[in-house]
Amino acid sequence: MSGPPYKHKILLSRLVHGSFLVSLMALIFLFPLSVTKGKESFVSTECELKTAFIYQFTKYVSWPKSKKDKDRLIIGVIAREHMFNAIKKLDGKLSQGMKISVISMKDYSQLDGIDILYIESWFPIKEELVKKAVKHHVLTISDRNDAAEKGIIIALYMADSRLRFDVNLKVADASSLRLSSRLLRLAHKLII
C-alpha cells in the first residue's frame, strides 16, 4: 500500500469541495444557450440554467446567526410565470440542512422571513428595495446585467450566449452575508 491510509479520504474531500466549481464550470462553458432553438425551448432552458445557479448559490452563502437557526430557506420570487415555475422546482430540496420553500411575490414590501429574493429584469430596482433587503439580510439576485451596480448582490445574466454573474460584495457585507471564496472566484465581476 502506497501513501498514508487517509490518502483516499483527502482525495474524496477535495473532490466534494471542488464539485461546486465543476458544476458551475460545466453550466457556464459546456452548455451555452443556443439561440437557434425555438423561443419556448430557449426560455425554458435559460430559466432552468438560472435556477441551477440559484440553487448552487444557496450552498455557498452564510447568513447571520439570527437567520441560520432555522430549518427553512425561503426564496421569494418576483418574476413571470416561466421563471417562477422553474424556481418553484427547488421547493422541498435541501441546502445547508434547510428545506427550500419558494413563494411568489408581487413586490418587496414583505421581506421579513425571506432569505433570498429573485427579481426578474422587468421589475425596477429602487434604492428602497436595496435598503430593505440589507436590513432583512436578504440575498438579492436579479437577471439584469447592471443589477450589481444598482445594489443587488448577485446579477445573473446572459452575455455572449452564456450565463454569467457579478457580485456586489459591498452590499453583501452590509447585509451581513458571507459569500464563499469558491463562489467569488467564479464571478465575472466583483464590486467592492
Provide a descriptive summary of the structure in words.
- There is one protein chain.
- This protein is 40% helix and 23% strand.
- It has one domain (7-191).
- The protein is built from 8 helices and 10 strands.
- Helix 3 (39-59) packs across helix 5 (81-88).
- The protein starts with 6 loop residues before the first helix and ends with a strand.
- It has 192 residues and is of the alpha/beta class.
- 30% of the residues are buried.
- The strands form 2 sheets. Strands 3-4-2-5-6-7-8-10 form an 8-stranded mixed beta sheet, with helices on both faces.
Briefly say what this structure is.
The chain contains 8 helices and 10 strands.
Which terms would index this structure?
alpha/beta; 8 helices; 192 residues; single chain
